[in-house]
Amino acid sequence: MSTPFTIVRLLPQILGLNGSLASGEIVAVSLRHMGHDVHILDVDTPEDVPATADLVCVGSGSTSSISPGAKALSALMPSLHAWKNQGTSWIAHAVGWDLLGVDVITAQGDHLPGVGIFPSRADHRFPRFSGEVSGVDYRGRPSAGYLNAVGQSELNESVQPLMRLEHPRGAEPVHEGLRADNLLATRVGGPALALNPHWAGDIVEELLAKRGLEPDFGPFHERVELLATQARAKIVARLGAKN
After folding, report:
1. Radius of gyration from C-alpha coordinates of the chain
2. How far from 108 is each of 38, 69, 125, 128, CA to CA, in Å?
3. Minimal CB count within 10 Å: which of 57, 68, 110, 168?
């Protein structure tokens, strides 16, 4: 029997706003429908940390969660970097992504050091943008969701945006998210992987490839993709009506 996949959810009580930690469950369900065993573990303190993790998910939080989130992640930093060195995959959302980056500048101008897992910097001294968005992702696939973005992110040259937004309006950015080997980050809600199951599929393929396995997408995955395509089409239609 193969070793179960271990998915870690970081700081679910602090960084789990608006269902942003659902990415872990979405990937788990996809793997289980391919016949794989998956364990999901919540990690809040160093005592909760497993020796290895296949995937680490961190969600978003409010502005007030930045300081406690940074403090809690600092205590976990040795384990987080050990996982990174082991080749663990990561999914991060909004504030969780910011805190796992190189550093964060708060709306008040304070500089907070990040964990350094994601090669990006966050600056919250920019206007908030909230609204539905659509565009194409790094593989040219239609993607959409609800973006509630505070500030901007600067990406290292070694990575690429997850998504290029079409018809940006006002303070809406042109690019969104981050994608690189073992790394996926976004500010898109929805939850993002439910509306864009192709992103979940990319992570599943990545996890399986590390074990020398191939994905076996079946009827379940086809139904999920169909429902997501229909939901994204409604977003695109609403955006078209506004333009």
Report:
1. 17
2. 41, 17, 7, 14
3. 110
Alpha-carbon gap, residue 178 to 162, rounded angstroms: 5
| pLDDT tens-place string over residues 184-224 | 999 998 689 999 999 999 999 999 999 999 999 999 999 99
Tell me which residue of 157, 158, 148, 142 sits closest to 234, measured CA to CA: 142
Q: CA-to-CA distance for 172 and 53, rounded, in angstroms? A: 35
Q: Which residue has the tokens 């992640």?
A: 73
Beta strands at 183-186 and 89-93: parallel, antiparallel or unpaired: parallel
Domains and their CATH numbers in the chain: 5-242 (3.40.50.880)
**Alpha carbon distance 243, 238 (integer Å):** 9
Phi, psi angle pair for 48, to nearest 5°: -85, -10
Q: Are 75 and 45 in contact (CB under 8 A)?
A: yes
Q: Which residues of 86-110 are buried (b: 16+ CB within 10 A; e: fewer)?
A: eebbbbbbbbbbbbbbbbbbbeeee
Paired tokens of 28: 């788990």
- Whether pTM > 0.90 for this model: the answer is yes
Which two three-digit tokens encode residue 37? Answer: 């065993």
Of 88, 92, 129, 132, nearest to 114 by C-alpha is 92
C-alpha distances out from residue 70 to 134, 142, 150, Å:
31, 34, 17
User: What contacts 209, CB < 8 A, 6 or more positions away?
Assistant: none
